[in-house]
Amino acid sequence: MKLKLIFLTLLFTTMQITWAQVKFEAKVSKKKLGVNERLRVDFEMNKDGDNFTPPSFSGFTVVGGPNQSISNSWINGKRTYAKTFSYFLEPTARGSFTIKQAKIEIDGQVYKTLPIKVVVTGAVDKPKDGNNSDFVASENLHLVAEVSKGNPYLNEAITVVYKLYVSPRISVSNWRELDSPKYSDFWSQAIDMKQLKVENGQYNGEPYRYVILRKTVLYPQKTGKLNIEPLSLSVSVDVPSNRRDIFGGRLYTTVNKTVAAGSRTINVKPLPTQGKPDDFSGAVGDFSFKVETNKKELDATESLDAKITVSGNGNLKLFDLPKLTVPNGLEQYEPQHSERVRTNLTGMGGSISDTYTLVPQYKGKYPIPAISFSYFDLKTQTYKRITSDEIVIDVKKGPDGGSSIVASNDNSTNKRQVTQTENQFRFLKLDANFESIQRTYFFKSALYWASLTVPLLAIPLFLFFGKKRQERLNDVSGNRVRKADKLARKYLSEAKKNLGNQKEFYIAMERALHNYLKAKLHIQTSDMSKEHIRGLLKERGADELVAAEFISLLESCEFARYTPSSTSAMQQDYDKASKVIAKIDKQV
């Protein structure tokens, strides 16, 4: 009996020591999830092994992984080692599923994990998975469209401000627009953003940093419910992971996240019909109106300018100015339209004008009748009318047109009776001095002989330039150099424009390098890790030194955006980028 007890004790002790030595187990982020959520599965071991074999993941689709992480630390002289293979899964249907056994070989022995049952329910309102980097980025990154007014009048200005909110828990390294809104039912004007500025604010009551990406002024052109299309961005987000470096600092992983400002709907009110003037042309805002001439006294056949001007704040570019009406004795030309309009967050402001050139034909007095301009005032929400004063033009010298001016009953035109005078044909020249015309012939002329000899002289020139062109086409090496230089200039032209502006220069430089890789290696932005780029360049025949220079340029762009840099340093980086692109284009 004692021998049996001793044997069992030794057996259990041996098994405990074995179990303490090797540990291989599977862990899941949750055992119950919605069909629209993701599941993270970690296979952890405390000793390094070989020939890891994952299960088939029946009932799920692998959307990420395997991601491998290794932790190796010393605490109080004791070494702790951990190696993890991580997978991200999406359920394919509702039901109960089993994460089957994974296998690995450690020290010649095969170890297996225990099966884990997972229940998949219907879709949940708000999917959550705190261990998923993609979910962490989604929860801490928000693109918001702020609309100044949701119930404007027709042709009343509203503004849309797009803000990108970023939580302090993550950081954003770069972004680009995927889809820009088209504003099909609006007249739109983008406000120039000279420099992006990071500011502190709140989102849903929590502290956030935000940057204003775009400001747009909109004037609705239709009534009813109008949809403002969303703005979509592709953002590179640095998310903290569960791994740490040798100093205990948390390591970050980069996630490419697509965010969009949700569609916004505004309800546009029609302008009131009560009190609407018959000559209303759609002006909405706060305006002043005047009609003026540069002179009121002149002689016949001289010219004067009559100018109609509307100034103020409102939809200045979206309505027509009143037309100028003049008496028959004034010759009127098509007006020259002029706009001095600026656009800011309050809408359009400035002035528009039509300038008419008028030329009187006879002496006399010509009244230019009063002109009316009507608009809808947003402050009082009523229609207003402004009427100019009558202007009288006095033509002192010129031919006599006969009777005096007679005004018509409708006060819109003025008529003059024109009578014939005895000297009405005084402009016709009766005594003409005619000269004979000598005929010239083309045959045997200087032009005749030139047309015969010039083609003969041009033949040697054609042969010479044709030979030079053929030599250039046969120069394969030279053509590659010229093609590489042209490609470098094409992609780096935007960076060259921003020399002196450090932030914009390096953003444009990094974008140029990425676009070049897309065109040359046919890869997407999500695949542009430095090691992947280095490997692709090496596979395509580029020298390791050239690949290293290219990677160095990318790192320089990332570093230089946050550290001071001189114009000479920017010029050096620009020249280096041109040479590196040219080298890669010749080698790859």
Automatic annotation (TrEMBL):
Record InterPro entries: BatD (IPR025738)
Signal peptide as annotated in the record: 1-20
Assigned keywords, A-Z: Membrane, Signal, Transmembrane, Transmembrane helix
Spans traversing the lipid bilayer: 446-465
Classification via Pfam families: BatD
Keyword Transcription: no
Keyword Calcium: no
Name of the protein this chain belongs to: Protein BatD
